[in-house]
Amino acid sequence: MGNRCIKCQNALKGDDMGATKKFLNRGAVRFYCLDCLAAEFKVSRSSLEDKIRFFRENGCTLFPK
Fold it and tell me: Could you tell me the pTM of the whole model?
């Protein structure tokens, strides 16, 4: 069984796990999907996606190309 969001149980993708580590805790072993992470921070999902794109373009290894 793959990783699932700790809040909604949806299947996770690499960006979900990278975002949880980047925005909450680098050592995280339980992860949020982008929708639940956005809700926790009270921001839009697209705002998180913009930040992920920025970090990816600047070489952040949590968000490989």
Answer: 0.88
